[in-house]
Amino acid sequence: MLRQVTHLSLFFSFVLPSLSEDLPQDARFSAFQSASEEANATVDAVLALAVPEGYVAAPWYPTPHGGWTPDWAESYAKAADLVANMTLAEKTNITTGTGYFMDRCTGNTGSAHRVGFPQLCLQDGPLGVRNTENNTAFPAGITIGATWNKELMYQRGAAIGQEFRGKGANIHLGPSVGALGRKPRGGRNWEGFGSDPVLQGIAARESVRGIQDQGVIATIKHWLVNEQEMFRMYNPFQPGYSSNVDDRTLHELYMWPFAEAIRAGVGAVMSAYNAVNGSASTQNSYLINNLLKDELGFQGFMMSDWFAQNSGVATALSGLDMSMPGDPTVPLFGDAWWAFHLTEAVLNGSVPVDRINDMATRIVAAWYQMGQDQDYPEPNFSSWTDDAVGLLHPGALISPQGVVNEFVDVQGDHAAIARAVATEAITLLKNDNQTLPLSSSATLAVFGSAAAQNPDGPNSCADKGCNKGTLGMGWGSGSADYPYLDDPISALRRRTSNLTEYLTDTFPSTIDAGEDYALVFITADSGENYITVDGNPGDRTVAGLYAWHNGDELVEKAAEQYDTVIVIVQTVGPILMDWSDLPSVKAILFQHLPGQEAGESLTSILYGEESPSGHLPYSITHQESDLPESVDLVYFELGQPQDTYAERHYIDYRYLNAHNITPHYPFGHGLSYANFSLSTATLTSLSPLTSLPPPPSPKLPTPTYPTTIPNPSTSPTEAIYPPNFSRIWRYIYSYLSESDALRAYDIGQSPTTTPYPYPAGYSATQRNHSVPAGGGPGGNPALFEPIFAVNVTVTNTGAAASTNNSTSNSTSTYTGHAKAVLQAYIQFPASTQSSFDTPPVQLRGFAKTRALAPGESQEVELTLTRKDVSVWDVARQNWVVPDPAGEYLVWLGWSSGQLGVACSSVTGVCAERERGPVGLGLSLR
Ligand code: BGC
């Protein structure tokens, strides 16, 4: 049976205008590319007018060669040997996908088998292997973010990596850190880890390490500022929206998690769909060449998001290395922006040989870097059918058949990791009168369809494009199929027979309300733009930030009938909870998006086998208007929708704190069944602060190759279809016909040829020096030097076992053990405010303790780096410590709104303060 794949619906919703205008024969580029590229250039010029003044995507050329950092040197040396033996057509073949639906995976590159380089399989998605079976459906990114547990972040990444490897996927299309969550309504925030660059960055770093330790190439995505779904894509009638962002905000918020992933050695980066400061993400030379590959020292390869590429030569010059899935804007006709067109563009001199060499070297180096040259399995599944035997190239329609699914079970013991994540993420927002944990004899009435899995089956909607039953993940390419879904109601049934079930979203007209507790399950969903669910095109448009399916009314009705209501929320992000202060709403738990382990994880918390230890990865406001207007969704505009980041680096709690707006529940908030104290805190300076980091070391030399354009008349194998080559209809190849190859070569050699109209600012000369902020993976290595160490003792001051349940004689199973999440926030010296406005506090580190017994303590150490105490100085284009001798305060506490201990960088003394830095005081509610 064919899997339902909805991606393509996008492309048939419009008709392409003709691009076949005649071009002079001597132009150094192919007709197909030039016509559309010229059209794009004209469109870009017109659109640039719409971008507000001050937001610029300056030209930055050429693409820095890869291979200049020591950690990649060995892989580059091997790659250089291999690439030196490749023909031009082999190099272009590995840069381009073979076409959507053409091979088994979400995307597949061409191969260079002659020299031992295989086809690569690129597969979604961030929470597990998509479009297959016998895989684990892990809790989503936002859920692992809510655990604040670095070890679990690594373990989840490692388990995901093992599953991708087990299925034979070379490249995992995750983790996602863009969207960062600037817009609470943004459709894909849940694929990432939370609305703070440090939380996102640490989770990304640990995930990348876990994935890549299994030999799988991780892909950090989407570069960059991809904060909403609607209007994200370019189409012939409208360009994707432009995110207009200033340089400081880019550095301090949106680039930060990418820098962490690059430091962790990530092998691939995926572009965004949208434009940034007016220039499309796949051909934005400033973003890719300058920020990503030069300043952040990214040594792997940059791929396009699926169908995000809008030009051939321009994307190559701007630093794109891989075109995915290979098709041009209109898929499935065997055409491409690259592949054979890229071969042609190199032959005719438009794309320098040097650039194609670098693209190929980056891809091959990443493959060596993960050790994929040693016994890496081939794909054993098909994304497109769940039959064992099927078309080998389904997109071709006429295709040989063969075994496409071997149904390899890759789950191992990963259910335990998935469950640990789902459990540790559960965030207790409110627990009046110690309502939780429940006693084993408590009588329960359960309300809400979300308590039970979708009656049609948990995988019945393609890519989870419906919100029916337990919400374990959002919708879109970031989803995966469930092997099973342990839903809350099944887990509750296993615990108790004192259960009355009302598994609908309409409050029953007659109930006796005799139970001790009402458990009300509600949801809020979102996803990717190619599916609209209940009127929401990815982003939460019509649903707003309210619970779906009249969830608010369900809670309110239950609160009228019961004295003790426990609300359980499965959600992609913040929701507004106007009912939260109703007297009978005693407890609120966020499960976030728990994946397949939604049941037992919840009951282990409800019944107190484990104490909740999740913390919010975003703030929850009282009303949507508490956040700035500029983070609202942008809607239709004639021309290019403009999304201007007028709030600059003030998002989420940074904004709320700066404007003295008390959140409903602050970023980082999460209650425990225990209480914790902090004691014996100290701050040690590890290295003297200077205002600027020392200059980085020079770049290492990168591979060099001959740069002569190969002559297809003397070396036909370089570019021309081999004799008797059997083509699959509509499959994308990198070969040219003999006449096309010779014509392209002649154009390139002719002294009278009109040169390719290179963009303003274009240069082919490599910049061999490191920029002051660059010089290593993630930036100048000095930025990551530890500057302060903060040591503190965390003690569980809670009572031993709890018998708090007034409505029952039996006790809960709570033993008193609990994990705490310590958070550290930096406050910049007051003296810096006149030169750099910095948010009142910013998260800079966190640690989760082990499960501490009552009375037990654990020493925790957090280190802050030079980057943590710096601001991005736009004029100097460097990270600057604004006042090296000034007093930095490192605030310690349990959330951005509950910071009670301040450590001074001047005295090293940490002291309890009566008021926190943001005027919220010490206790929350
Ligand atoms: C998404 C990517 C995804 C790709 C392949 C795109 O629509 O934005 O995140 O990896 O499709 O499915």
TrEMBL record:
<keyword id="KW-0119">Carbohydrate metabolism</keyword>
<comment type="similarity">
    <text>Belongs to the glycosyl hydrolase 3 family.</text>
</comment>
<dbReference type="Pfam" id="PF01915">
    <property type="entry name" value="Glyco_hydro_3_C"/>
</dbReference>
<dbReference type="InterPro" id="IPR001764">
    <property type="entry name" value="Glyco_hydro_3_N"/>
</dbReference>
<keyword id="KW-0136">Cellulose degradation</keyword>
<dbReference type="InterPro" id="IPR036881">
    <property type="entry name" value="Glyco_hydro_3_C_sf"/>
</dbReference>
<dbReference type="Pfam" id="PF00933">
    <property type="entry name" value="Glyco_hydro_3"/>
</dbReference>
<dbReference type="Pfam" id="PF14310">
    <property type="entry name" value="Fn3-like"/>
</dbReference>
<dbReference type="InterPro" id="IPR002772">
    <property type="entry name" value="Glyco_hydro_3_C"/>
</dbReference>
<dbReference type="GO" id="GO:0030245">
    <property type="term" value="P:cellulose catabolic process"/>
</dbReference>
<dbReference type="GO" id="GO:0008422">
    <property type="term" value="F:beta-glucosidase activity"/>
</dbReference>
<protein>
    <recommendedName>
        <fullName>Probable beta-glucosidase F</fullName>
        <ecNumber>3.2.1.21</ecNumber>
    </recommendedName>
</protein>
<feature type="domain" description="Fibronectin type III-like">
    <location>
        <begin position="820"/>
        <end position="896"/>
    </location>
</feature>
<dbReference type="InterPro" id="IPR013783">
    <property type="entry name" value="Ig-like_fold"/>
</dbReference>
<keyword id="KW-0378">Hydrolase</keyword>
<keyword id="KW-0732">Signal</keyword>
<dbReference type="InterPro" id="IPR050288">
    <property type="entry name" value="Cellulose_deg_GH3"/>
</dbReference>
<feature type="signal peptide">
    <location>
        <begin position="1"/>
        <end position="20"/>
    </location>
</feature>
<keyword id="KW-0326">Glycosidase</keyword>
<dbReference type="InterPro" id="IPR036962">
    <property type="entry name" value="Glyco_hydro_3_N_sf"/>
</dbReference>
<dbReference type="InterPro" id="IPR026891">
    <property type="entry name" value="Fn3-like"/>
</dbReference>
<keyword id="KW-0325">Glycoprotein</keyword>
<dbReference type="InterPro" id="IPR017853">
    <property type="entry name" value="GH"/>
</dbReference>
<keyword id="KW-0624">Polysaccharide degradation</keyword>
<comment type="pathway">
    <text>Glycan metabolism; cellulose degradation.</text>
</comment>
